[in-house]
Amino acid sequence: xxxxxxxxxxxxxxxxxxxxxxxxxxxxxxxxxxxxxxxxxxxxxxxxxxxxxxxxxxxxxxxxxxxxxxxxxxxxxxxxxxxxxxxxxxxxxxxxxxxxxxxxxxxxxxxxxxxxxxxxxxxxxxxxxxxxxxxxxxxxxxxxxxxxxxxxxxxxxxxxxxxxxxxxxxxxxxxxxxxxxxxxxxxxxxxxxxxxxxxxxxxxxxxxxxxxxxxxxxxxxxxxxxxxxxxxxxxxxxxxxxxxxxxxxxxxxxxxxxxxxxxxxxxxxxxxxxxxxxxxxxxxxxxxxxxxxxxxxxxxxxxxxxxxxxxxxxxxxxxxxxxxxxxxxxxxxxxxxxxxxxxxxxxxxxxxxxxxxxxxxxxxxxxxxxxx
Length: 372
Fold this sequence. Notes:
Layout: H1 6-29, H2 33-59, H3 71-83, H4 89-106, H5 109-126, H6 135-141, H7 148-176, H8 181-227, H9 229-242, H10 247-258, H11 261-273, H12 284-300, H13 305-308, H14 311-337, H15 341-371
């Protein structure tokens, strides 16, 4: 293991303890006993890593501090407890990949290998890949839905951001043209409703089209299970072989699954189509309503001051409220990226305000041109 500074040891120790804390929370909230055990083992590995860093810190003359979960860790733990483990798995994958990168570059190949293994296990649990599991564990993971939770949360943040940035730009463009307060208010509300309706309609069409496609493909799979079970078993075995099982293990598992036609159809839908046959990618109406609400929440922020104020005061307060909203959305995105809250929030603010400034300037030019 490469010798590093005390500060670097402390950083690695803190990262491992935060990961162990989260895996412990996941094991407590997971309802599947086998997956619970997976999480408990992963937590134990992270604790073992942390203990190695504790020894390195003490040998280097440093002192191991009392562990306190980081703010990001506490937020992810709250989400896991409130909505379920699947909501935070994408963020956990990012954390493990960061661990692989950090250890792989300079520290411990052994730890890097274990972190890489954790990343693969999380990927398997979320449903995008299931390599590296033995037959029994792999079969247990077949019934798990893809990680819709983390993606839904990400979509929520980005949907609100779309509404805020687009309507702020629209409002500033109209304000730049020096139109009356009533005109700015009406334009802002119209932009909010038009954008929200467009988002909702687009989301409904997208999800509904996917559902219809999946339903058709599952129908084809059902016919193949009925008419050519041997071929479907071979396809399933090849999938498992591609994901790390031996030829014998893959064929044994595929044969066991194909003995029950309903279970076989469910597994084939998940493996070949990547969809839960019971949900078919989710409800189109739920997606549409969620998109409408989230876009509206973001889009109303720059409009609020124009309900009560007018002129320069309303414009300034609108920009101020939008700046706060942009920063909070940028900070929320760090749940997925693991980047600094400050830098991510400020980046969102800068780009949002630049877009608003651009449309304000265009509105100003148009207003002057029309007045002339």
